[in-house]
Design goal:
- The protein is mostly helical and 48 residues long.
- The chain has one domain.
- It is built from two helices and no strands.
Length: 48
Amino acid sequence: MFIRNQYLAAVNTGIAEAPVTILLGPRQCGKTTLARNFAATRANVTFF
């Protein structure tokens, strides 16, 4: 597993600007993994 600190920081910035943030990218690039890692590090995160 790779730790993607720069991407987690970008998601954190997006969440700070807007409570709803979308991750866009091609298939199998790690969007779900990134979202799950982010949700695991924060409280009050709803993962759909």
